[in-house]
Amino acid sequence: MDGPGLVRRGAAAVLAAAVCGWLSTLAPSAGRAEPVAVQVVREVPPEPEPKPPPVPEVDCARAKCVALTFDDGPVPGTAELLDVLDARGVRATFFVVGEQAAEHPELVRREHLAGHEIGNHSYTHADLGAASKRRVVEELRKTQDAVRRATGFTPVLLRPPYGSMSGTLTREARRTGLSQVLWSVDPQDWSDRDSGSVERRVVEGARPGAVVLMHDIHGSTVDAVPDIIDRLREDGYVFVTVSQLFDGRLAPGEEYVERKSGQPQGLP
């Protein structure tokens, strides 16, 4: 056989051997499927949405009930006040300014989840008694929305800034489902930033059924609260929210100052 023929047959043999060798690397998987790791994913139920603790039953027709209320917040210092109230097992009512609630929704949510009551104090701390109908509607609505976004809860109480009211405000409060809550004890903590004076005026002015006005935007007020609570508690007072004070029987649009003679009492 001539030389070129031998060369061609030799090259073919080398190629065939190479192909056989490559196929042999595939042989283990040619006849069976390789095992595939399967990851089992179990659905984890979502954490239940936290809720405020149950409202304790208090008979304010018999007990010496008093409602501590705080206006104009929330502000960063409100967190310290919440710590004080939590440590002493006291529930209060916070009348929040809507723009502050929008800026600090986490504090509004904390108030709500701690069992405190949250009321509407307008959106910009406006003089609602002197405002136009359009302005009143906007101030109330925007605050309702801010609290609802933060808590899922819609307020049923309104404290008009400065205690300023009008027929227009009363009609819009009624339409919005808001009872108007004023106060019967005012320590004037906004003018006298002295915790001792605030404490003395609250303790001396307290009486069964009283609604106490304070402001959590003032550090001096926050500093006065522990001693206010301790002294009133020593005198037999029970701390309740505004709605508890009036047995939850507050009519939208009506004005309330304090509870008298053991029964829910509004203004004449």
Please supply descriptive tags for the structure shown above:
alpha/beta, single chain, Polysacc_deacetylase_ArnD, five-stranded parallel sheet, globular, TIM Barrel, 268 residues, Peptidoglycan/xylan/chitin deacetylase (PgdA/CDA1 family)
Would you give an account of this structure?
The chain has 268 residues and is α/β, with parallel strands linked by helices. The chain has a single domain (64-256), classed as TIM Barrel. Helices cover 43% and strands 12% of the residues. It is built from nine helices and eight strands. Strands 1, 2, 3, 6 and 7 form a five-stranded parallel beta sheet that branches. Strand 1 (64-71), helix 2 (78-88) and strand 2 form a beta-alpha-beta unit. The termini are far apart. Mean pLDDT is 88; it is low at 3-8 and 25-30.
How does the major sheet shape up?
A: 5 strands, parallel
CATH topology: TIM Barrel
Radius of gyration based on Cα positions: 35 Å
Structural class: alpha/beta
Number of E-type strands:
8
Cα distance, first to last residue? 131 Å
Report helical residue fraction.
40-55%
Average predicted local confidence, pLDDT: 88
What portion of the residues fall into strands of 2 or more residues? 5-15%
Please specify the SSE layout and strand pairing.
Blueprint lengths: L2 H28 L33 E8 L6 H11 L4 E4 L1 H6 L1 H9 L3 E4 L12 H19 L5 E2 L8 H10 L2 E3 L13 H11 L4 E6 L3 H16 L2 E4 L1 H4 L9 E2 L12
Parallel strand pairs: 1-2, 1-6, 1-7, 2-3, 4-5, 5-8
